[in-house]
Amino acid sequence: MKIEEIDVALIELNKGQIPGLPKNPRIIRKERYELTKKSIEETPEMLELREIILVEYMPQRYVVVCGNQKVRACKELGWKKISCKVLPADTPVKKLREYAMKDNLHYGEDDKDAIANEWKDFQSELADWGMEFEQPKKKDEFRERFEAMNNDSAVYPLLPKYDEKHELFIIQSSNLVDSNWLREVLDMQHMRSYKTGKVGKSNVISIQDVRKAIDALVKGGAAS
Fold it and tell me: Reduced to 3 states, what is the DSSP secondary structure of residue 216?
């Protein structure tokens, strides 16, 4: 495999021009693509350290096997020539597929502890270079309050999420027979409800659903 300075105008992105080599499957978000352009602009020598790989599919016409997004960025940046590794024209198409797919795979993962500690003074640089950091999870005060409950501290209603925005009507059941009777009478299996096994079991259903169930019972009784 030889390294050549190739005229950008002679390089085509992989769009399936070569039979047996499907178009480039890599999708890159706009933000990531802009970081790629920025990286090439600021550190062009990286292209020589990790060259773009082409194959000559007809005289003086090349298709990108590895590095489609880099070539696209170079074109937009106005580059005239790019240092590339050029595969022989008779490279088996199975090998072209293998190179293309393996170039898109990322093996291993970042050591998050090392990033957070040893690299903590350089995280702005890492972000500029394209590293993505996990976003902090939004605090769920309701879940924290609920998970902190136990048999001694729990009071009805068990769902503090509802205690400020809704008026509550609580029906307490101490045995399974009564619970199943209520579910059947109110047709609760067809209602949206909140259920949890944290402390006993609680169900929150809308008053509209209860009204429908009671209306149905009343109509059924009148008909009989």
Answer: helix
